[in-house]
Amino acid sequence: MHFFLDESGELGFHPNSSRAFVIAVLRVENPKPLKRVIKSFNAKLLRHGWPQEVEVKAANVFGAPRSPAIPESFRCKHGPDPLLRGILAAIAASGAQLDVLAVNKGRINADLRQLPHGILYNYYAGQVLIDRIAAHDEVTLWVDKRNKELHSLLHFDGCIETEAFLRKGGPMRLEIIHATAEQVYGLAAADYVSWAAFRKYESGDTRFYRTIAGSITDEQAWFFG
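Above: the chain's sequence. Below: its structure in token form.
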């Protein structure tokens, strides 16, 4: 089983940081359909005039109307919403199972906010991953390698591996690979899902999330409501 993990927002607590933090996980037995979906979408954008030097990801597509990096010659510059709903619908139709966890950072305990960067991330990622991983005998987990941990405690890989093996209580194979969405199509797909969920929890904009809501198998909302 292949797991693809991406997040939106951040777990910092400075005055200008996001209100919400979101983790999305896509689970598939065969990642080829996701690859076809993302390759087809990227090719469509390039045909429409998307500049090759700009990464194709949800935030960039959504921000195209305000971005000087996206030229007026891009045919969808001032109407990106149908593109985003289209790619989300294609991801949902690919057979991927989607899991989402959102945290209202404003209600996280003040003491926990002082923990070294990465500790809370590992904890919340574990809430999404551990039970799902332990349900299989062989898992490859793909994670964005740009995530940095600034502490000397057990890092992400060791934390997830330890908890998964303890939960499994028997033999299993778990491989964790750090890559980027530009390198791995499944991570690119997870970016769209995490972005759509972030829009919902950060600003109440559910128009994109509704497209994938039927494919969400587990949605955890921490400290909302």
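The CA atoms of residues 24 and 194 lie 5 Å apart.
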